[in-house]
C-alpha cells in the first residue's frame, strides 16, 4: 500500500470476501474490472476496455461486461466530470449516470459514482513503490495534505486531506480555472486561445489537446518551422503523441513540450498552495509516464518554485509520477470496497 487512505468504519465488507465491479468511465474510452478483495489482497477476475460511444448508456456497457460473470457485491464508477448528488453527466456522449437508477437496475444497495481523479487518489491505496517514480524526493517535515494532477485527454485535479490518521481524497474541477499569463509570450498565447475558445482554462494547455494548442500557436503565430516528415506524421497519428515523442528530432516539438512542462509546473504549484499539499504532488494521467525524461533536468522543479514568498514551501514538496495506468480503476474498486 502506497498511502493509508480512508476506510469507512461502517462498512460490513472489510473482513469478508467481496466482489467489486469498478469502472474508469470516460467520454472516449471506459475500463471496467471485476475484483475480488479481502483486506489488502486484490484479485482481478475480469478486465476489459471499451469504446464508450459504442454504447448508448452505462447500463448497456455494464451488461456487456458482466455477461457470464459472477454478480458483484458493489459497484463503483470513477467518472470524468463532476458528480453532484449521485448524478454525473458526460457531455461529449450525452450520458447521464444516476447511482440510484443503477442501484435499482442492478438490485444493489452499494452503488457509487465518484470523480475519476478522486478515484485515482483512492487508487494510491492499491499501488506500491514500483508503481511510481520519484522525480524530486522533497523534504517532508510533518505529515500534511497531498495532491494529484493528471494531464490526459483533459486536466484532472484532486486533493488528499490528512486527518491525522489517514488521507481523505476529494475531487476538484481545478483544471477548468482560468489560465494566468505571466509574461508577453503567455499573453500572446492567451489571446490566441481566447479567440479560439472564449474562456481559457489551464485545461486548454495542460493536456493532450493542450500540447496541440501550444504547438499550433508556435507554428502559426510564432512562425516556427514544421518539417515535412513531421507534418505527415501528424496527419496519420495522434498529434499529441507525435509531438511529445519527437523532442529530439524537431525544434518545434522540443519548444512545445518545454512550454507544456512549464505550464504543468505553474498549475501544479497553484494546486499545492491551494491544498497546502506539502506531503507530495502525484502526477497521473497518460502523458507524464511517456515523457519522464523531460522532468529529470530540473526544469519542472525550477518552474514549480516561482511563487515568490512561498517558494520555500514548494521547494520541499516531493514530486512523483504515477506509472500504473489502472490507478483510477483500482481506486474505484477500493472505494466500492470500503464504503
Characterise the protein shown here:
The protein is of the alpha/beta class and 339 residues long. The protein is 34% helix and 24% strand. It contains 11 helices and 14 strands. It has helices at 58-66, 99-106, 116-123, 184-197, 208-220, 228-236, 239-244, 251-275, 299-304, 311-314, 327-338; strands at 18-25, 29-38, 41-51, 74-79, 83-84, 87-90, 95-98, 111-115, 132-136, 146-151, 155-162, 167-171, 281-283, 319-322. The strands form 3 sheets. The protein has a 6-stranded mixed beta sheet, sandwiched between helices. Strands 3-2-1-4-8 form a 5-stranded mixed beta sheet, with helices on both faces. It has a 3-stranded antiparallel beta sheet with strand order 5-6-7. Helix 3 (116-123) crosses helix 11 (327-338) and helix 5 (208-220) packs across helix 8. The longest helix has 25 residues, at 251-275. The mean pLDDT is 93.
Q: First CA to last CA: what distance?
A: 18 Å
Computed over alpha carbons, the radius of gyration is: 21 Å
Q: Give the strand order of the largest sheet, numbering strands 1, 2, ... along the chain.
A: 9-14-13-10-11-12
The H/E string reads: EEEHEEEEHEHEEEEHHHHHEHHEH
Q: What level of helicity do the residues show?
A: 25-40%
Structure annotation, total helices: 11
* Strand residues, percent: 15-25%
| Number of strand elements | 14
Given the helix and strand composition, which structural class is it?
Answer: alpha/beta
Principal-axes geometry comes out as: globular
**Unreliable runs:** none
Summed over residues and divided by their number, the pLDDT gives a mean of 93
For the largest beta-sheet, the strand count, sense and barrel status come to: 6 strands, mixed
Amino acid at each position: 500500500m502506497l498511502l493509508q487512505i480512508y476506510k469507512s468504519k461502517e462498512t460490513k465488507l472489510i473482513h469478508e470476501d467481496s466482489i467489486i465491479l469498478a469502472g474508469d468511465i470516460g467520454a472516449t474510452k471506459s475500463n471496467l474490472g471485476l475484483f475480488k478483495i479481502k483486506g489488502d489482497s486484490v484479485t482481478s477476475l475480469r478486465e476489459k476496455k471499451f469504446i464508450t460511444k459504442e454504447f448508448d448508456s452505462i447500463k448497456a456497457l455494464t451488461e456487456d461486461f458482466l455477461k457470464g460473470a459472477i454478480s458483484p457485491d458493489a459497484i463503483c464508477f470513477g467518472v470524468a466530470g463532476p458528480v453532484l448528488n449521485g448524478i454525473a453527466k458526460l457531455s461529449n456522449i450525452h450520458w447521464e449516470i444516476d447511482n440510484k437508477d443503477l442501484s435499482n437496475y442492478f438490485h444493489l444497495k452499494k452503488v457509487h459514482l465518484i470523480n475519476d481523479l478522486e478515484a485515482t487518489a483512492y487508487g494510491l491505496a492499491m499501488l506500491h513503490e514500483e508503481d511510481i517514480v520519484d522525480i524530486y524526493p522533497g523534504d517532508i517535515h510533518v505529515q500534511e495534505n497531498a495532491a494529484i494532477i493528471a494531464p490526459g485527454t483533459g486536466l484532472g485535479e484532486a486533493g488528499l486531506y490528512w486527518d491525522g490518521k489517514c488521507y481523505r481524497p476529494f475531487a476538484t474541477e481545478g483544471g477548468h480555472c482560468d489560465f494566468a499569463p505571466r509574461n508577453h509570450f503567455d499573453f500572446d498565447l492567451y489571446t490566441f486561445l481566447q479567440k479560439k475558445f472564449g474562456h481559457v482554462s489551464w485545461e486548454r494547455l495542460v493536456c493532450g489537446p493542450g500540447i496541440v494548442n501550444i504547438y499550433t500557436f508556435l507554428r502559426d503565430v510564432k512562425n516556427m518551422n514544421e518539417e515535412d516528415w513531421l507534418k505527415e506524421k501528424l496527419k496519420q497519428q495522434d498529434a499529441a503523441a507525435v509531438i511529445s515523442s519527437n523532442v529530439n528530432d524537431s525544434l518545434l516539438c522540443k519548444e512545445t513540450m518545454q512550454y507544456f512542462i512549464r505550464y504543468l509546473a505553474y498549475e501544479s504549484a497553484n494546486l499545492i498552495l491551494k491544498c497546502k499539499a506539502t506531503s507530495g504532488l502525484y502526477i497521473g494521467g497518460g502523458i507524464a509516464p511517456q515523457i519522464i525524461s523531460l522532468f529529470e533536468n530540473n526544469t519542472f522543479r525550477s518552474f514549480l518554485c516561482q511563487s515568490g514568498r512561498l517558494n520555500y514551501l514548494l521547494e520541499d514538496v516531493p514530486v512523483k509520477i504515477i506509472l500504473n495506468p489502472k490507478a483510477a480503476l483500482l481506486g474505484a474498486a477500493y472505494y466500492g470496497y470500503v464504503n
